[in-house]
Design a protein that fits this description.
44% helix, alpha/beta, 7 helices, globular
């Protein structure tokens, strides 16, 4: 309450410290729903070096179904891949950010076909990733100006109410 109403915070980001299937997340999700602010949650499909409480896209989809009135952004398109896109496709309250790893040919285009342009939000992973690389995945997809603007600017503006 203090951070949102008193300091203008626009959302909450959760990393790898708590899997989003945990019941301990319930009070946070209820507060996000009450305040009408979004959650950005780290997600990645890994076969090695997965942290004990790290969430993968199937966990994000579970959370999206459990809290359908909370806007959730699943971080890391490149780390979630095609499988992650399919996991969240049935959850209209869940979007994906475009960050994570190197650009993969066809991945942004596939996300557009499955999720639509309103559910894709530019993510940079700054300062950990090169911004040119992250922009390259958008500009390299050959999108029209309107779709590019939605992904790079308009969707975040709407989500964060700015």
């Amino acid at each position: 309450d203090r951070c949102v109403t008193g300091h203008g915070f626009k959302g909450v980001k959760l990393e790898v410290a708590l899997n989003c299937r945990s019941e301990r997340l319930e009070p946070i999700m209820k507060k996000l729903e009450e305040l009408e602010i979004p959650l950005l949650h780290h997600s990645w499909y890994k076969s090695v070096s997965k942290y004990p409480e790290e969430s993968d896209p199937s966990d994000i989809a579970f959370l999206g179904r459990r809290f359908p009135r909370v806007k959730i952004v699943m971080a890391h398109l490149a780390g979630c891949g095609y499988r992650g896109i399919e996991d969240i496709a049935p959850c209209p309250n869940v979007s994906i950010d475009t960050s994570g790893g190197q650009p993969v040919a066809g991945l942004v285009e596939y996300a557009l076909r499955r999720l639509g342009p309103a559910r894709i939000i530019f993510g940079s992973d700054a300062p950990y990733r090169d911004i040119a690389c992250q922009l390259g995945r958008i500009y390299g997809a050959g999108l029209n100006r309107r779709t590019t603007r939605k992904i790079l600017f308009d969707n975040a503006k709407e989500l964060l109410k700015i």
